[in-house]
Amino acid sequence: MARNKFRADVLEVRDELNKAEYALNIRRYDLAIEVLQKMLKEHPENSAIFYTLARAYFAKQELMQANQAVREALRLDPQSSLAHTLYGNILSNIGMIDAADAEYRTSLELEPQSAYTHYMYAALLVDKRKDLVGAREHASKALELDPAAALHHMVMAKILGVAGEFAEAEVEFSRALSLDPENVHVRRVYGWYLLYKRNRPEQAFEQLKSAMQLNPEDPAVRKVFIAAFIARKKRYRLFWYFAFFMSNKSWLVRGIILFVLLLTPVLASHAMNSLNPIVQVMATLCYLLVLCCSVYLIVCSLVLNLMIKRGHLK
Question: Most exposed residue of 96, 103, 140, 270, measured as fewest CB within 10 angstroms of its CB?
Answer without folding.
Answer: 270
